[in-house]
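Working notes for the structural subgroup meeting. M.R. asked for a predicted model of this chain before we commit to crystallization trials. I am recording the input and output together here so anyone reviewing the notebook later can reproduce the run.

Input as submitted:
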Amino acid sequence: MAKISILGGGSWGIALAVLLHKNGHEITIWSALESEVEMLSKQHEHKMLPGVKLAEDMVFTADDAEAVRDRDLLVMAVASSYTRSTANRISSLVAPGQKIVNVAKGIEDETLMTLSEIIEQEIPQAEVAVLSGPSHAEEVGRGLPTSVVVGAKSRATAEYIQNLFMSEVFRVYTSPDVLGIELGGSLKNVVALAAGIADGLGYGDNTKAALITRGITEIARLGTAMGGRFETFCGLTGIGDLIVTCASMHSRNRRAGILMGQGKTMKEAMDEVQMVVEGVYSARAAMALAKKYDVQLPIIEQVNAVLFEDKSADAAVKELMLRDKKIEISDEMWNS
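Returned structure, recorded in token form:
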């Protein structure tokens, strides 16, 4: 049995808390919001995961030291926009070599850093890993079969975390490609916004398939240029996560996209979804990275235009369809 703290009382953190508790571990759930701690303590249920009950022996706290000290593993489950402030807040409490696994997805707009890079910068004494994949909290909380990947610089760290999370309903693979895992998990949210926009406009399965297929091409194009491994983008944290995020109504990014396709502004869509829409925060960072690494991201570029330049969703789709003619794969196989 390990002592594990979940840092963040949102739906994803709660789902993982339930999973890890069923695996026999001692669980503490920390939130910076006293109201959230009180709700969890009294109701033993999160409003975003109705019916998913939290065990009576779980500890709920807003006390930083109680959550961090003497923990075998810290699970960083706060929204990406709060990763830096949370890491900075707990840094002095983290022991040398203490393990932290980040389970959020995003890229910091101002610095273009991945979330694990932020944690390493703020808490240099920690061993930082990431866990990602096609894994909606609503399904993990209910114990539906799910597969994910844990990435770490050290094989031993990856395998340690794999063993903690692995169960008959939660299969965990390991990978050394931390950068690729994080880029896949972050950029798929932007493509999911595009898929949602297409749904909101009333387009069909053909459109969705094209967006998913060309979307993973864009993600892999940027990811490999930055040093990620191509195989990662063909796996669970690439095409796998992209499919589930583009196809499911559990996806807040797709739901926000649908609302924008129906004519709502970005703010109106985010207010209606009532959850953090990570793709909005990653979209601008993705374009900055595309410029830095000199790669083309036409779908992500049009999403940015809809989000930040008041471009109509319909005009964005038409521009994608009317781009200059391209080849899909290398034409070197042709003899003439």
